[in-house]
Amino acid sequence: VGMTDSVGRILAELIEANKTLKTVNVQSNRLTGPVITEIVRSTLKNQTLIELRLSNQRSQILGNRVEMEVADAIAQNHTLLRLNLQFDTLGPRVRVTEKLKQNIDALRKKRLSSKQETKK
Hints:
By secondary structure, the protein is mainly α. The protein has one domain (5-114): Leucine-rich repeat, LRR (right-handed beta-alpha superhelix), CATH 3.80.10.10. The chain has four helices and three strands, in the order αβαβαβα. α1 packs parallel to α2, α2 runs parallel beside α3 and α3 (64-75) runs parallel beside α4.
């Protein structure tokens, strides 16, 4: 609680460098929209994160531009299954929801495929 943008930027660098991290929870802090976007983009390098919790920040309303940038980054992420972030704009909210569904479905198919191979 109380994380500011300077610490958020460091966190983004750490997420980008980490190859085993699965969950990040930075709810209820003082992060601004651009740093939230930076954190979301940082998940793209290693594609290991499955859950990202970013809700309840200083700026409750991110704005259309930030929401679109977050949605663009999520669209490139193939491992994220859960994102806790409030979207006020319908377009980005739908895009993110659909991408998370695709990721969950891909994981389910992979799990079923590996089960079938094990039975053979």
